């Protein structure tokens, strides 16, 4: 079989991303225009501006509104204002945009339609601290959560209870207008209430759960935040609240959609695909080690899959930051894989974030090849030491094996492909 492993893996990634783009998945989910009232478009996330552009290009009538996205992830919208702000740590631009969004939805009527466009990244981009909490405190807590190894569900549980807009509060501000939320999922399990901390969906989690998460990861918080959570001042509206009765939501694109598209691409190339899981979580280095063990079993014994094949997986791993290197969870996954494989023949791998940004770096991820181990040794790179320093970026940058796609303007989280020939 004649195949270029590097090109093959890059093609799978491109296919996966294209399958969950706003242009591909949105048109079928757009609701009918309100007969009498206004159509207001709001939303947040790394792909929110691209979604707003699809609305403008396909909506039959007038639209207006405000979208907040990450710096560099904007789109050329004419009717809907696009504001860019910081991610993953919120900034003043995001705080102001969130405040303006709440003002924008005031005074709506039952005849009005609010179209809320949500993708991953919205939690940081739509940051409006609860009463008595400062932006600086939210920034510090966000940084601590990102370094702690907490899952996205845990982080967003905390964020909801310290916010004036997340956890369903934005939808309540829109009442009595009808709110239709369209989502591209970046969270394992595709729970719409977790995506971007669910600004328009009721929230079953509690302040007590938020405190338990902070305690679990040993994150110290100021007295005012402790009081805010202990008193219940940060409690969110719950499922069953009648104010959500007219609203609806649709998860349009998920990691599973991306994996299935990549699987079809592999099959067309004559490589049998196996989707391992669409919602893997855990420490990136641990997940990398397990994937390496599976790949070696296939390469050496043809178990549990016969080669040639490609093993696909998605989800969102985490990195507990201990070192001072430049990382990203996909680079860390691949570096752990490299340490475990140490050049095992016939195994190639790619790991990228579908949003084009691995953590907070400028790359989407990286690619591993059987000769990565020897090429690194020739350059004097100590892979094990670099893994301990969380320096996956540095390792693959030195090898020329970073993948830099730029912003994709969508986000269904990690995409991993291991090709075994």
TrEMBL record:
One of its GO terms (molecular function) is kinase activity. Residues 309-414 form the MOFRL domain. This is Glycerate kinase. It comes from the Bacteria. PANTHER family: GLYCERATE KINASE. It holds the Pfam family MOFRL. Residues 9-230 form the MOFRL-associated domain. Keywords: Kinase, Transferase. InterPro entries: GK-like_C_sf, GK_N_sf, MOFRL, MOFRL_assoc_dom, MOFRL_protein.
């Amino acid at each position: 079989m004649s195949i270029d492993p590097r090109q093959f893996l890059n093609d799978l990634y491109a296919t996966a991303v294209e399958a969950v783009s706003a242009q591909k998945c949105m048109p079928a989910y757009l609701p009918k225009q309100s007969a009498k009232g206004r159509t207001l478009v709001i939303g947040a996330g790394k792909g929110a501006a691209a979604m707003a552009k699809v609305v403008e290009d396909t909506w039959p009538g007038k639209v207006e509104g405000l979208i907040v996205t990450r710096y560099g992830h904007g789109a050329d919208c004419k009717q809907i204002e696009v504001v860019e702000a910081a991610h993953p740590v919120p900034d003043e631009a995001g705080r102001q945009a969130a405040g303006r969004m709440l003002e924008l939805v005031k005074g709506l009527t039952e005849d009005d339609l609010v179209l809320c466009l949500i993708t991953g990244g919205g939690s940081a981009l739509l940051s409006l601290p609860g009463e008595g909490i400062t932006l600086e405190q939210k920034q510090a807590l966000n940084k601590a959560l990102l370094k702690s190894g907490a899952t996205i569900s845990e982080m967003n549980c905390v964020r909801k209870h310290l916010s004036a807009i997340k956890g369903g509060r934005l939808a309540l501000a829109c009442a009595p207008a009808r709110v239709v939320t369209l989502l591209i999922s970046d969270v394992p399990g595709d729970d719409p209430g977790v995506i971007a901390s669910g600004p328009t969906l009721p929230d079953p989690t509690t302040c007590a759960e938020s405190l338990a998460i902070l305690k679990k990861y040993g994150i110290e918080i100021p007295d005012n935040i402790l009081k805010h959570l202990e008193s219940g001042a940060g409690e969110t509206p719950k499922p069953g609240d009648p104010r959500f009765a007219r609203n609806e939501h649709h998860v349009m694109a998920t990691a599973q959609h991306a994996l299935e598209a990549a699987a079809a691409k592999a099959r067309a190339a004559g490589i049998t695909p196996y989707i391992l899981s669409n919602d893997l979580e855990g420490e990136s280095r641990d997940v990398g080690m397990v994937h390496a063990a599976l790949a070696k079993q296939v390469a050496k014994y043809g178990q549990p899959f016969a080669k040639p094949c490609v093993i696909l997986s998605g989800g969102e791993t985490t990195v507990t930051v201990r070192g001072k290197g430049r990382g990203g969870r996909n680079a860390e996954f691949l570096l752990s894989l490299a340490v475990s494989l140490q050049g095992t023949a016939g195994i190639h791998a790619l790991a990228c974030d579908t949003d084009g940004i691995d953590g907070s770096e400028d790359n989407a991820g990286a690619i591993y090849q059987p000769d990565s181990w020897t090429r690194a040794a020739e350059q004097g790179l100590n892979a094990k030491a670099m893994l301990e320093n969380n320096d996956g970026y540095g390792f693959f940058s030195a090898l020329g094996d970073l993948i830099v796609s730029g912003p994709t303007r969508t986000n269904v989280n990690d995409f991993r492909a291991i090709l075994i020939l």
